[in-house]
Write the structure tokens for this entry.
Amino acid sequence: MIIRKPKGRVANKRKYESLLDLPDDLWENILMRLAAIERLTIAQQVCTTWRRVLKEPTMWHVIDMSDVRGLPDSKVVQHVCREGVDRSQGELVDIRIDFFATKELLVYVANSVKPGNQRNVEALAISKSLPALSHLHLIRNSMTNIGLEAILDGCPNLESLDLRGCFNVSLDKILSSRISKQIKDVKYPRDSLAGL
Amino acid sequence: MVKLKSNDDKEFEVEEAAVIQSEMIKNMIEDGCATSVIPLPNIDSKTLIKVIEYLNKHINMGKAAETGEEDDLKEFDEQFVNMGWEELFDVIMAANYLNIHELMELCCQSAADRLKNKSVRAVREMLKITNDLTEEEEQEIINDAPWAFEGPEIDDTVN
């Protein structure tokens, strides 16, 4: 049987036997500032408290995999990313993947996210990882306005954007005028798909 | 002025403008519950002095941007978190209790920065953590994620 330390020890205890006496939610606050890869490769091996904290789905709402320079093996990065996505238990709201984003990985991420969040995963991934993008076809993509706005924010160099079949996007006046200002060549959700 | 009392019975006077950075005390003042001394049973005087030092420095944060004192504040923050782990954790607990968002951010970030790129052994030594994982659990970690043991170069020093 595992006996857990009581939560929320008082701060004035003079000598910490171990510095683990912080309550779990404060450890969460600290450990979520570590890169995803560090949480999974180092932190979860430290002790049971950290291992428990790192299993909380809230720890994995945001997965930032953009800073993985100097890694010898991009396979490790892929594993870390998948494990982080699994631990989010579908609650993933933001994921940042850079150069190592294979198609398989994007599909994996997209499939594991709950429907409410899922629709924008590809759009968010694109908006964050491809800032220099100039031509984008997102035909029949499931994104909503959230995803579209993320792309407009994250890809300022877009010259053409094909949104045909993206029926979850609803273009109001503001969004339409933003698109027409920013992008030269636009195909709208309801434009004909003939010729594809 | 608002009077705060630490758990070792020392009283401190703090300007209201400084102390309302604590959401907890701000609420107390708004509810009219801060007429006399506010007792802080979770905070000792040593920690409270640090917290007050922070609050006083960070009065009128918004104005800092206009008057070009941002760099000054940044330098202060860097110096401020230059403390031992135990002291840092005392301040984190106090900031959490008093609900001072910016101070929590500063201290938790500092804690995370110290842990960055450290090996498992170094982390345990820094934080005086005894390995309490059972052999089964350790084996489980390896089985679940064999790739985790092929990670990047790590720092085994404890500074």
Chain B has two domains: 2-115, 120-150. Chain B has a mean pLDDT of 88.
